[in-house]
Every structure is written in C-alpha cells, then in structure tokens.
Design brief:
Blueprint: H1 10-35, H2 40-44, H3 48-68, H4 70-75, H5 81-89, H6 95-120, H7 122-125, H8 141-163, H9 172-191, H10 197-207, H11 213-235, H12 257-269
Helix pairs in contact: 1-3, 1-6, 3-9, 5-6, 5-11, 6-10, 8-9, 8-11, 10-11
Amino acid sequence: MTPERTSLHWPEYAIEAAALGTFMVSAALFATALYHPSSRLAAGISNEWLRRCVMGFAMGLTAVAIIYSPWGQRSGAHMNPAVTLTFFRLGIVARHDFLGYVLAQFVGGIAGIALVAAALGDLVSSPSIDYVVTRPGPAGEAVAFLAEAAMSFGLMLVILSVSNRPRLARFTGLCAGLMVWTYIAVEAPLSGMSINPARTFGSALLAGDFVGLWIYFIAPPLGMLLAAELYTRSVGMHRVICAKLHHPHGGACIFGCDRRMRATALVHSA
C-alpha cells in the first residue's frame, strides 16, 4: 500500500518548518546560556563534558516536547530531511510530501536561527556561539563523516525498531530524545553533532561558514538509509507502518498507515 498522492498537505509542511525552527531557537538559546563568556551559568560550569551533558539534556528534552506536541503528532515531527528521505525510500511518504517536508525543514532551520540572532544580536554571532555552527572536530573530516553516519544509523534503527512495535511505539519520542542527549554529550567534539542537513545549513548560512558542509549533507542520509535497509531486510518491508515518530490515537494521517495496518491484519488473518 502506498501513501495518499492526490493532495498537498500545507499544514504539515508548516508544522515541519516551525518544529525545526523551534529546535534551532532552543539550540541557540541554550548554547548562549552555556557557552557565552558573559553568562553566569557558563561561568558556573567549568567542566566541558558536564556542559555538553546539560546541552544534550536541553536539546533532547526539546526534541521530546516537539515530538509529543499536538503539532508534532500531526506532521510526524521529522524535523530532518534525512528522516523524511528514509521514509520516502520506504514508500511511506509520497513524492510531493517528501518535497514539501524537505523544503519546509530547510526554511525552518534558516528562519529559526535568524529569528534568535535578530533577538540576541551579538550574543549569537560571537565566536563562542557562532550561530551554533556544526563543523568537523580536531580529528578531521573523515572521523566527522563516520561519526555522523554512525549516529544517524543508530537513530533511525531505533526509530524503526520501536515505532513499529505496538507495545513500544509510544516510547519512540523518548528514545529519540535520549539518543540526542547521549550524542551531544559524547560525540559533539568529533562533528558538532548534527545528523541533520537542514539544521547544519541554517547555521552555516547565517555564519557564512560552510566548512565540511558536504559531510552533513551526505553522512546522515547515508546512515539512515543503511539502517532502513538493514531493518527491512531483517523483518520485512511490511513491518514499517507509519512515518510518524509518535502517532496520535485519533485523527487522519497523511501517510496512509490505517490502510497498511488493515492490509497487514488481512494478511495475518488469511
């Protein structure tokens, strides 16, 4: 069964833009609080790993809040072109929705960081924050690429494994948030922890810093597509029901999951 292909879904596209924009605002605000020299909080936390833990917790909590919000439940809270591309490859997202989601995500990533930059001015553009740009760490671009691909692989594998199990599906957003927290705390020194082309592009555009941008456009989609390939080869394409990270109990779904669930039930009952 394929997703509905007859109409555009502008509300969902707008939600995707707003969701990633909100994530970018949160990233810039917490980065300013934790890393700007004038911040009392930054002065009170001298340990770099502890700072990353706090930053990771804040961003993981932001992701969870967006995923479980009414708007996040409506669009599926992808907030990431690599996520949308993977579900498109799996046949869950229609072509026009794929294009609408990805365009909206890039617009949201740019608008979010631009909004907070306009509000905070020099605080966000200062070298210590630099529009929360993600760039390869001292270990180099090869390590950053491998790290981004590995993180993206792990995130998508968890999303697919949890969201497609009825007893566990409601915990998908929590698992995603926990992984964001862990990745920022542990991996950020290697690549800046992006796993999201639109998130990185928004910051890079405002900062005028495109060093290593190719990494964040290639590694996350590659990692997630590999995870999807492994998952479907292991359990079958029919086990992928919906493209939402958290599905509401009621309401229409643009990804056609009701049809797929009915079809799956008929197959099992035959």
